[in-house]
Amino acid sequence: MVKSFWLSLRLRNAYRVNSIIYSLKQLPLIKKILPDRLYKNKGIKILGNIISIFLEILNIFLGKLLYLWLMIFSFLSMYETKSNETFLHLFFFLTLAGALLNTYMFNPTKDKYYAMILMNMDARKYTLSNYIYAMVKTFLGFLPFTLLFGFLVGVPLWLSIILPLLVCAAKINMAAINLRKYRQERKVINENNPPKSYWLLVLVLLLCAYGLPFLKITITETIFLVLLIIILGVSILAWGQIWNFSYFRKIYKELLANNSIYIKNVNVKTEVAKASSLKNIQYNEKFTSNKSGFAYFHDLFVKRHRKILTLAIKKQAIVLLFLFGLAVIALLINKNLHQEINNLLLTYLPYFVFIMYLLNRGQTVTNAMFLNCDHSMLTYRFYRTPKVILGIFKERLKTLIFLNLIPASIIGIALPVLLFMTGGTTNPLNYVILFVSVISMSIFFSVHYLVMYYLLQPYNVETEMKSSTYNVVQFLTYFVCYAMIDLHLPTLYFGACLILFCVLYSFLSLFIAYRLAPKTFKLRR
User: Fold this and answer.
1) In terms of CB atoms within 10 Å, which of 211, 418, 486, 524 comes out highest?
2) Same domain as 13, residue 109
């Protein structure tokens, strides 16, 4: 088993290093300098290995830090309950929710395809050795931060050390349940597409996590310890089921096949991806349009793709309305929250830059546009003419802005209402700034993603994202938005500057898109 793990580790690292080199070769200017024989260069290989190790360390630690900070620690000040008990309460329910969605075992990845399908490695040895490695990474990744945040909120040292074991145990238990489900029903659970029942359970757990403390109900240390012992005990039995399971190869064949990873023929792979997306298209003779030209073409596309384009928006709207209602109830019940929430609304507007970034559907919508329209239409010469490209671009921009304005409008209305409920402000312009800045951010991200799509067009003919430049811009966008979290600035001044930036950026990027899109919007080979 050790030999299998070592081989799989070398295989995964080689794949990652080659991906890094490939990404470097896709960057503008650099790609003309770097030759194809770069893959054989030992110096570049060493650099790739260093970057690979750095990425692995980031993967182990950074995500856990952000998770504990953003999902748990930052919420503690909102409740009147004891900080240590609230921390344990949130940690417990969020751990269960995370186990439902991510066990690490049922994630279809290319390294699994390379190892078990192409190289015919022993599926059981590969799975068990890599799963042990994943659990070790989970424990080590959580440990320094459970110690840190546990110390800050007053959780006993011995309990802070044990907390990462709860995460591992919960994932092991859920993996065993999924394996048992396969044994009984021959049904494979894909972590990238969990069943609706799992999402419903996650919603219930999230309500328990964040809702109960508002009612001053939390898990005490004693109850938490009892639950921890039960879950750890069950995990020992669950690990026995995982260890003795003998159908890993069958599971991964089905799991990888359903995700078009282990399809050797590129054309077949493309057709599988398109067939999968076609399931979300609604063909109905009643779908007509009174528009003409580009607007007619785009209007039919939107109506036929309502599942892809609007379903997530509706879900976002429902969740935001629910959270708004929950906040109103909390403020009515607990008057002590008023001053703190009021201060947050008047100084934490930068935080909403990151929230609007997360809510924006630009990338998902442009992906649907490519897969279900542009992938085929770009093969026709007339579709690549400036008149057609810019005509459809305008229609798509209007649609994307409209879709993103739905959740943005809810937030834009909710923030001034909450500000008024918590005591208001001496400057009435703050109400206007809160609303207009959120709307401006929504329009900014809509323009940003559509312009990126037209200028960088990241997808190749096999519907894979192959543009390193696009990925770099995506990362920089995320980095800047995330960095805004730590900014505490007056809403009036920051909001005014933000609105001005959004307007200027939108006009400038649209001007560039109108000039360059006819040259850059094409299929990658």
Assistant:
1) 418
2) yes
- Based on the domain organization, do 119 and 157 belong to the same domain? yes
The β-bridge partners of 459 are: 465
Q: By the 8 A CB rule, do 338 and 479 touch?
A: no
Contact 353, 359 (CB under 8 A): no
269 within a domain of the structure (yes/no)? no
pLDDT-based confidence at 319, cuts 50/70/90? confident
- Whole-number pLDDT of residue 164: 95
Nearest Cα residue to 98 out of 70, 67, 65 = 67
Which residues have C-beta within 8 Å of that of residue 495, sequence separation ≥ 6? Answer: 349, 430, 433, 434, 436, 437
Task: Extract the tokens encoding 90.
Answer: 């949130």
% of the chain at pLDDT higher than 90: 27
For residue 158, give its domain range. Answer: 2-258
Q: How far is residue 440's CA from residue 6's CA, in Å, rounded to a whole number?
A: 51
Check whether residue 338 and residue 307 sit in a common domain: yes
- Summarize pLDDT for 24-47 with one digit per residue, the tens: 666 665 655 665 565 566 666 676
Is there a domain that residue 266 lies in? no
Which residues are within 8 A (CB) of 305 and not within 5 positions of it... i.e. 6 or more apart? 280, 281, 282, 368, 372
Residue at which a domain ends, from 225, 258, 291? 258
**Calpha distance 436→432 (Å, rounded):** 6
**Number of Cβ within a 10 Å radius of residue 379:** 11
Do 52 and 174 sit in the same domain of this protein?
Answer: yes
Mark whether 231 and 289 lie in a shared domain.
Answer: no
Q: Are residues 392 and 308 in the same domain?
A: yes
How many CB atoms within 10 Å of residue 4? 19
Q: How many domains does the chain have?
A: 2
